[in-house]
Amino acid sequence: MMLSPVKCTAKRSKSEPVIHSLPEGIMHDIISRLTLKDAVRASLVSTNWRRLWTCHSNLCFDSPTILNREYGTISRSSSRRGRRRRRFIRRVDAILESHSGTGLRRFGITFALDARHTEHLDRWLKFALDSRASEIAVNLFPVFYKGFVRSYEWEDAYTLPSHMFSSQGASYIESLELVFASLKLSRDFYGPLKLRVLDLQSVHMSEGDLELLLSKCSSLECLRLGRCYPVLNLKVQKPLCRLRNLSVRGCQLQVMEFSAPNLAKFEYSGQAIPITLGESMKPTEATVTLLGYDDTLEHVFTELPKTLSHVETLSVNTCINTEVVGFSNCLMKFTHLIKLEVTVSILGDSRIRNGILRLVSLLEVAPLLQRLELNVSAPLALMHVSCLSFETNDVCLVLVAFDPP
Asked: Is the pLDDT of residue 66 over 70?
């Protein structure tokens, strides 16, 4: 008895689901687009999917994925936190034991671990390096800490293996992100590295190690440094010719010297310090936040143009003391500046306006300026400065916003 084509198709679909008969290349592509949690669930469908899951290219372990808990639900009980850490470690170990180590592209750990868990973290990083992962992200910042990391807390921070950058797998890393860790280079570190992105946040390392690391990263395109300690003098002698984006925030620097001829975007947040970025550097966009309670307007007009003379779009956060009159040095010009956003915090005696009137110099230092946005934060006693006005035909749009604290 012959079955109709329709009945044959129906019979085959019952015995063998169509998704199981897909070409292996398509199944690999489907698995690679799933999150780690969904990939594990998919492995329960069949032995084929279970085999493909062991080649998942994205292994990112965090609390929502491994423990089904959001970051903000951390317990104040140290014993309960300890149990969760142990459960997290067991599950990560189990997943890595099942993974084949092939096809790994991104490897990430986001969990509050420290020096007590060095054995596990070393083993996980070795797995990532042996698997030739091109992106590695390690975020160990404790979610119950707020603000800056105090010096004594670095004693508890995890220290990356000194031989990490000397291993063969390090040559495959293109992106490295570290948060709340200590980094020390081994004496036999020779490089070079193929890093394109380096992001160090709350990382404890010497300025010598940082300079040595950067000198071996000739392919670096993006560098982000935040609250790194105890780096004071950041000087990189070797030109970073491919560097396009540079961000340095809250690092308590005293001097910064870079040579980045192709830099396009620059961001700095910290004290007013000497910044040298190379003679041939021509960034088109910059954001500068000068921290502290001292008058820093003169630094904006006399020092920043030396570094950012070719910038076209500039955002500046600065402080003005009403009692400071004039400038002690000659004003420099932003010869290419078109768009300027200035956020000013006004301090000092509310009865004195001379310091505030120096803002008029904004139009003098930027002859090509087309748009000026001025945001002023001042005590209520100083709100009468709204009578201050700029008269010019060159600026197409002037927006003045007063934001009392």
From this structure: yes
28 Cβ partners below 8 Å, 6+ apart?
A: 52, 55, 103
What pairing do the DSSP bridges indicate for beta strands 175-182 and 197-204?
Answer: parallel
Q: How far apart are CA 37 and CA 363, in angstroms?
A: 56
For 252-283, write each residue's pLDDT tens digit: 899 999 888 899 999 999 999 999 887 656 78
Torsion sign, CA atoms 165, 230, 202, 226: negative
CA distances to 111, 272, 326 from 298, rounded to whole Å, are 43, 10, 9
pTM surpassing 0.90? no
Beta-carbon count within 10 A of 133 CB: 26
The sign one gets for the Cα dihedral 98, 100, 101, 105 is negative
Cα–Cα dist 125/123, whole Å: 6
Can you tell me the distance from the alpha carbon of 103 to that of 348, in angstroms, rounded to the nearest whole number? Answer: 61
pLDDT at 45: 54
Among candidate residues 234, 184, 186, the one with its CA nearest the CA of residue 207 = 234
Q: Which residues pair with 139 in a beta bridge?
A: 110, 179
Helix (H, G, I), strand (E, B) or coil at 337: coil
- Taking alpha carbons only, the member of 322, 318, 236 closest to residue 275 is 236
Average pLDDT of the residues of the chain: 79
d(CA 236, CA 257): 6
Structure tokens at 216: 């071996």
- Mean pLDDT to the nearest integer, 129-135: 93
Q: Which of 381, 380, 363 is nearest to 372 (CA)?
A: 363
pLDDT digits (tens, 9 = 90+) for 154-198: 678 999 988 888 888 888 999 999 999 999 888 777 777 899 999
Question: What CA–CA distance (Å, rounded) separates 356 from 297?
Answer: 10
Predicted pLDDT of residue 255: 92
What mean pLDDT is predicted for residues 73-95? 81
pLDDT of residue 220: 96
For 181, the enclosing helix (H) or strand (E) is: strand 175-182
- Residue 91 phi/psi, 5-degree rounding, is -70, -40
Task: In whole angstroms, give the CA distance from residue 18 to residue 28.
Answer: 16
Contacts of 350 (CB under 8 A, 6+ apart): 322, 379, 381, 382
pLDDT given for residue 12 in this prediction: 43
* Rounded CA separation 221/247 (Å): 12
